[in-house]
Amino acid sequence: MSIVIGVRFKKAGKIYYFDPDGIQIENGQNVIIETSRGVEFGNVVIGVRDVPEEELFLPLKKVLRVATPDDKLKNKENIYKQIEAKEICLKKIQEHKLDMKLIDVEYTFDNNKVIFYFTSDGRVDFRELVKDLASIFKTRIELRQIGVRDEAKFINGIGQCGLPLCCANWLGDFQPVSIKMAKDQNLSLSPTKISGICGRLMCCLKYEHDTYLELKKELPTKGQLVKVKKGEGMVIDVDIFKQKIKVLFRPEKENDEKEIEWFNKNEILRVKGKASK
User: Fold this and answer.
1) What is the DSSP string of 245-271?
2) How far is CA 90 from CA 86, 249, 271, in A?
3) Averaged pLDDT for residues 48-75
4) Distance of CA 16 to CAs 35, 63, 152, Å?
5) Across the strands, what pairs with 244?
6) Alpha-carbon distance 159 to 61, whole Å?
7) Distance separating alpha carbons of residues 227 and 273, to the nearest angstrom
8) b/e code 1-34 from CB counts within 10 Å (16+ = b)
9) CA-CA distance, 242 to 59, in Å (whole number)?
């Protein structure tokens, strides 16, 4: 076991573990940490705790100190610098006529690097742009191309549910999402219904997927033949929340009306294969 704290560097960013190095640190405090990118200003979102070593990437970087008032002031100054840097970079992109969209700018806490995040439909030759930016800011420059999901996370917005985007407000990591999840939940497969503002499948398709799979485990699917006390019929609908199935019974005589009835899961005596066409 290792003693760690969990730190975020952005509002809904990934949580990284660090060694508190014996410093008394509480959840919610700001800390100064040396990372692979340099010295960074972060927010503690997981207080001191023991974590199994197999869940960590060792060796852990150590916390330098709890952020002082001067550190917090410098972090605010960096935020203002980022706004200015974004305006400068936008002008330079226009001057070089580059097909790229600048999304965000980030200074490392120690000002040793400025990172410019952008999107583009293809590869961009930004070597001259980097030279211009380096001559202006007199520090290391990094241009990082991101995807449309990351763009939505940076910009934020309102989802179809009417709430702020999960990815920008609390979702630390993107989880794999597939069209099968929408099918398992009996959702409309229209792209406008199941896509987020990023144009990709909505992250929230993942949230309840395991619950749907668990509820569907012991229920037959549409088209299967089942036997109940009333007789044998074909499943034509499934209500997984009420744990019921709608069964169509074949008429005994050609002119008889077809019977349709709902049954609870515990009324199913046997499940057979798919009905023949």
Assistant:
1) EEEEEPPSSTTSPPEEEEEEGGG--EE
2) 6, 67, 64
3) 87
4) 10, 12, 22
5) 239, 264
6) 37
7) 11
8) eeebbbbbbeebbeebbbbbeeeebeeebbbbbe
9) 50
- Mean pLDDT, range 119-127, rounded to an integer: 89
106 has a pLDDT exceeding 80: yes
pLDDT digits (tens, 9 = 90+) for 204-249: 999 999 999 999 888 998 889 999 888 888 999 999 999 999 999 8
Q: Which two tokens stand for residue 57?
A: 């990437």
Query: Which of the residue ranges 21-30, 140-149, 251-260 would you say has the lowest mean pLDDT?
Result: 251-260
* Separation between Cα atoms, residue 63 and residue 78, nearest integer Å: 20
Crossing angle, helix 69-96 and helix 127-137, to 10 degrees? 140
Rounded (10°) CA dihedral 5, 35, 79, 138? 170
Per-residue pLDDT reduced to its tens digit, 4-57: 889 999 888 888 999 888 888 989 999 999 888 888 999 999 888 887 877 777
Name the pTM for this structure. Answer: 0.77
The tally of CA atoms less than 13 A away on the side-chain side of residue 163 is: 8
Mean pLDDT for the chain overall = 89
How many other CB atoms sit within 10 Å of the CB of residue 228? 17
Show the tokens assigned to 80.
Answer: 């203002």
Name the residue among 268, 208, 264, 198 with its Cα closest to residue 233. Answer: 268
